[in-house]
Design brief:
By secondary structure, the protein is an all-alpha fold. The protein has a single domain, classed as MetI-like (MetI-like fold, Orthogonal Bundle). Helices cover about 85% and strands about 0% of the residues. The protein is built from nine helices and no strands. It is elongated, with a radius of gyration of 21 Å. The termini are far apart.
Length: about 220
């Protein structure tokens, strides 16, 4: 078998359109996962067990079940209830909630490393409870979480490929359409894999740079 990448060039515009949707999905879900994770972790760590019980169940549920199964349940479950939601909406929030649960676990561990003396010192200076959390405690926890959050982000970018199963036109689905016409699966899948690899290299470089800056601040 000889590889022929000429058909890839013919459909490269479609792959670039899929890349755009991949980036949009990753950025949107990433925002939900980062801010959702810190919100969940803060509520779990700084409220009573009764208040935080639903969020503990949320984290347990999303961390304990496969992302693929969650997407199928969201996509077909709402439709069975006669609630039609756009696939893009389900993809962004499904991916975002899934990784928010993992990020919440990372943030919880980071919050527990912050000395309680810092909280008491801030309160003695007149800071309220919320101001102390959002100005003193949470920023430090976010800095300390950067390495693991970066790993989760890179994994999440790769997991955008799973969203093709619910009909979202990201790179893998664009490649599958081209393959159905050209019958050249290896060439298209290799191209998509290289694009994902390039994205992850860029992300890794940016995260390493930001991690070094955050260590200086600490």
């Amino acid at each position: 078998m000889k590889l022929n990448f000429v058909p890839v060039l013919s459909y490269f515009d479609s792959l670039l359109a899929g890349l755009w949707w991949t980036i949009l999905l990753a950025v949107s879900a990433g925002i939900i996962s980062v801010f959702g994770g810190i919100l969940i972790a803060t509520i779990i760590n700084y409220t009573s067990r009764i208040v935080s019980a639903p969020l503990r169940f949320f984290v347990w549920l999303f961390m304990g079940t496969p992302l693929l199964l969650q997407l199928w349940l969201f996509y077909h479950g709402w439709a069975q209830l006669d609630i039609l939601l756009p696939a893009m909406f389900i993809g962004i929030f499904g991916l975002g909630f899934h990784y928010a649960s993992y990020n919440a676990d990372v943030y919880r561990a980071a919050l527990e490393t912050i000395s309680h003396g810092q909280y008491e010192a801030a309160r003695s200076l007149g800071f309220g409870h919320l101001r102390t959390l959002f100005l003193i405690i949470i920023p430090q926890a976010m800095y300390r979480s950067i390495p693991q959050l970066g790993n989760n982000l890179i994994i999440m970018v790769k997991d955008t490929a799973i969203l093709s199963i619910i009909g979202i036109s990201e790179m893998v689905l664009a490649a599958q359409y081209a393959i159905s016409v050209t019958y050249r699966p290896f060439e298209f899948y290799i191209t998509v894999a290289l694009i994902f690899y390039a994205i992850n290299l860029i992300l890794e470089s940016l995260l390493n740079h930001y991690e070094k800056k955050s260590l200086i601040k600490l």
